[in-house]
Design brief:
Blueprint: E1 2-3, E2 10-12, E3 15-19, H1 25-34, E4 40-45, E5 48-55, H2 56-72, H3 75-80, E6 84-85
Parallel strand pairs: 1-6
Antiparallel strand pairs: 2-3, 3-5, 4-5
Amino acid sequence: MYIATHMKLETYKGIEFVRISEMPEAQQALIHESLDKSKIIKILRDQVLLNDCIQAADYQEWLGVAKKTAQESPAMSHASGELRLAFE
C-alpha cells in the first residue's frame, strides 16, 4: 500500500483541503475504510460541487495515525501484498 504524504493543498475561502480523488487508489480505499465520514466535506466552488474534500488538519491527523499503524503492524504488509510508505 502506498500512502502519499504530500498531497496538493487547495484553498477556497480560507479553507485548506485535499481531494480524495487526487490520491492514489489504494489510499482512497484506505481513507474510505478508516476515516470518520463526517470528516469528508463538500465545497461548492465556481458552481462545481467538490464532494470528496478533507480539511488539511483532518488529513494530517489521519495521516499520522495511518503511518503509525503501518509502522506498528509490519505483518500487515505480508498479508496484503506490499506496504510502501513515501516520506519526503
